[in-house]
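Subject: design request, 150 residues
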């Protein structure tokens, strides 16, 4: 009698290696490198587009701020007959103001999107009948103004 009992057909070395390989978990180096390359390509395409959108949003915000400040300056002129000596006069009453009815900007004077001040000049050198209002912008956007070059 055979004392050793066989539980199934005898397995060769190739079958045993294949079974061991199937039970191993994890990723191969090639799989990891492929994922890293795909992520790099996606970032290479997406990041420049995002930066471009951000620059456009900064420019749009600066233009909107200039329009809002210009409207406040016009309201000041309607109340006082002239434009103010500086932008702070939109927030606090200057001594020279006759009919100041402010503050003309409820939330204070905004900073430009790059953290700088908006620059105001009255009478303007570009708009001699009115005022000049602008921001220096950034190296990418350049100055943003209330006048048109031409």
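Subject: RE: design request

Done. Sequence follows.
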């Amino acid at each position: 009698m055979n004392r050793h009992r066989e539980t199934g057909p005898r397995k060769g070395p190739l079958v045993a290696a294949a079974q061991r390989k199937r039970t191993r978990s994890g990723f191969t180096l090639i799989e990891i490198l492929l994922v890293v390359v795909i992520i790099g390509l996606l970032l290479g395409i997406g990041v420049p587009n995002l930066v471009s959108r951000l620059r456009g949003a900064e420019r749009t915000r600066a233009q909107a701020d200039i329009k809002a400040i210009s409207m406040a300056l016009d309201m000041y002129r309607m109340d006082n007959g002239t434009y103010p000596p500086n932008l702070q006069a939109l927030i606090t009453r200057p001594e020279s103001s006759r009919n100041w009815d402010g503050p003309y900007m409820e939330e204070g004077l905004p900073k430009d999107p790059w953290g700088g001040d908006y620059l105001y000049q009255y009478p303007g050198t570009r708009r001699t009948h009115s005022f000049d209002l602008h921001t220096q912008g950034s190296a990418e956007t350049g100055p943003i103004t209330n006048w048109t070059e031409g």
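The chain is about 40% helix and 5% strand.
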